[in-house]
Amino acid sequence: MKYEGQICRGPMERSSFMLPVAVGCAYNRCIFCTLFKHLSYRELPMKQIEEELARVREAGGNPKTVFLGDGNAFGLSADRLLEILDKIHQYFPGCESIHMDATVTDVGRKTDRELCRLYEEGVRHLYLGIESGLDDVLLFMKKDHTLEQAYREISRMKEAGLIYDAHIMTGVAGKGRGIENAEHTAAFFNRTRPRRVINFSMFLHESAPLFREIQNGTFCPADEKENLMEERRLLEMIETDALTYDGFHDFIEFRVRGELPKDKEKMLRKLDERIEAETEGKVAIVS
């Protein structure tokens, strides 16, 4: 597979065949993100996409699930996506579902009929970068949506049968606002009811535009203890059924995952142990 840039997809897609259909992110203005800043966004030619499908089929591949890359494949026009879906089904007759990342605005650009057509042709899971349940945080981080827009577009996609999954980031609200952000994000999830939530605790890199906000004092990052406490409050307050959760903390190599509500108490205990270790200054990794 020819792939430019960093491969980025949710852990729930590790068994999916990843088919690149674009390079970079069509939006690419979130100030915390460094994944696509070095890339110039472009759609890949259909010839290249079809060559990759043919290569995999000739190697004996017939995946049940396909994940379209790159940053927000759902930003492609409905007509372009339908053309790609048709090719996927031609080459992989066993394919049952197609998943991809999306922004709230990507959904808003599709008509109700287009959303239904995409569902009819096999699109199932859409991963939306929700990031926070606070409007002022979304504005500061230059997300492409408000909460009101997110509520509207998630309702539209679910009405068409599409499955809504969410990306979030503990720490995105900054120092001292972790619990506030957790409570508002949980309220958002209790209303919108995602099937999956992936939490990448904010990883700050000097190449991110957000780093300049830290240098000039307009953003103060939370430490990992506060991020852990935020995550604990989030999981404590989520009241949806059948939600798969996976949370990462790169700085301390900590991960908590499970099914809600079934695994909630086990996940909270694991977080309590890690928070206690952080409080006492222990460095052992809780895995």
From TrEMBL:
Residues 11-239 form the Radical SAM core domain. Keywords: Iron, Iron-sulfur, Metal-binding, S-adenosyl-L-methionine. InterPro entries: BchE-like, Elp3/MiaA/NifB-like_rSAM, rSAM, rSAM_horseshoe, rSAM_sf. Its cofactor is [4Fe-4S] cluster. It comes from the Bacteria. Pfam families: Radical_SAM (PF04055). PANTHER family: ANAEROBIC MAGNESIUM-PROTOPORPHYRIN IX MONOMETHYL ESTER CYCLASE-RELATED (PTHR43409), RADICAL SAM SUPERFAMILY PROTEIN (PTHR43409:SF4). This is Radical SAM protein. The lineage of its organism: Bacteria, Bacillati, Bacillota, Clostridia, Lachnospirales.
